[in-house]
Amino acid sequence: MSFDIQKIRSDFPILNRKVYGKPLVYFDNAATTQKPRAVIDRITDYYTNENCNIHRGVHHLSQAATTAFEDTREQIARFINASKKEEIIITKGTTESINLIASSFGRDILQKGDEVLITAMEHHSNLVPWQMLCFEKEASLRVVPFNDKGEIEMSAYKDHINDKTRIIALAHVSNTLGTINPVKEMIQYAHGKNVPVLIDGAQALSHLKVDVSDLDCDFYCFSGHKAYGPMGVGVLYAKEKHLEAMPPYQTGGEMVESVSFFETTFNVLPFKFEAGTPNVEAVLGMGAAIKYLEETGMESIEDYEDDLLAYGTQKLKKIEGVQLYGTACKKTGVLSFLIDNIHPYDAGTIIDKFSIAVRTGHHCAQPVMDRFGIPGTIRASFAMYNTKEEIDQLVEAIHQVKKMFG
Are 55 and 63 in contact (CB under 8 A)? Predict the structure, then answer.
């Protein structure tokens, strides 16, 4: 369909509410996106008409719920262009997906003296699991720096890869800087050195068309709630060859083929990595969110959000005393900034009183703040339902903050 901003805004019920007597302006989309009516209705429909545990059941409700669940897995595979649905593992989100790879694949391949490579702009979820694994295995965590604009230097990246590098884990899009990393080029170079690559796609899926086959990544992780779907659900895409070789991450029901007191054999893919009852309604809600993205059109979304970002960047640059962090040539709709010497928490609290939701702090990427020598930033992150008029309201709120603090 054509990109009709008023139609899109009408699809998100929460945008109708008021905060402090004014219409809500929601600029906290990098933390979580709002949900279209189609997602809310799908969850309600499941609990109203289909509620049942999936797999194994022979009665009608179980069969219907199982079919809907597995159809969604196929839908996800098509959306990111995985070669088969068995490469789609349902998880609680990006964090669990990364922990799964670190705990299973990583623990299996990493030995004393080996190295794991990440970048200096990673979210804590793509840092701490590797840090802990390196401690356990007596391996080293190496970090690729970024420049003042928030861009990874490819020469530095290449220099950090050596014969001890066992896996590379990096963000597709930075949650603090908005930088779109050249992941396809980075994967291609790593594969030339026989090093597998994990991509944290949490901040990419709602903004960019993701094609895992084109990227040729070994692993790709994302969360439903950052792409207009429910919380508590996400996806790990992994190449079949890796999944077949990896030991299970968790054990229990569904992930087994047969069990005795003396031996257990594991289920086929993808069920080998899906122990216990999944968050069925959230998976179906995620499917509704993906359908919404497809119908809206990822290229249209990207073009619209690029225009918003350019507008917002231009507006904030004109405000005296506002410092932007993250000015990469290729980035998505994130504006991280500080206002004069005002602490981001203080500024964010005032901005909230203008019914504008922004995020303040280190955004679970404390090393990024350390890189710039700051305590944190104010982050305004955009989604497809935001408007230039809302950016103008943010600009006015920033001016009011400056007046209040003299």
Answer: no
Residue 47 lies in a domain: yes
Under a CB-based contact definition with an 8 Å cutoff, are residues 365 and 176 in contact?
A: yes
Half-sphere exposure of residue 166: CA atoms within 13 angstroms, side-chain side = 21
Residues of the chain with pLDDT below 70 are 1-2
Whether 330 maps to a domain, the answer reads: yes
Same domain, 245 and 351: no
Residues 6 or more apart whose CB falls under 8 angstroms from that of 163 comprise none
Our answer to whether residue 329 is catalytic in this structure is no
Burial (Cβ within 10 Å: 0-12, 13-18, ≥19) of residue 263: exposed
**Domain assignment of residue 129, yes or no:** yes
* No. of helices (H) and no. of strands (E), the chain: 15, 17
- Tens digits of residue pLDDT in 296-351: 999 999 999 999 999 999 999 999 999 999 999 999 999 999 999 999 999 999 99
Q: Which of 217, 221, 329, 364 is catalytic?
A: 364
pTM of the full predicted structure?
0.96
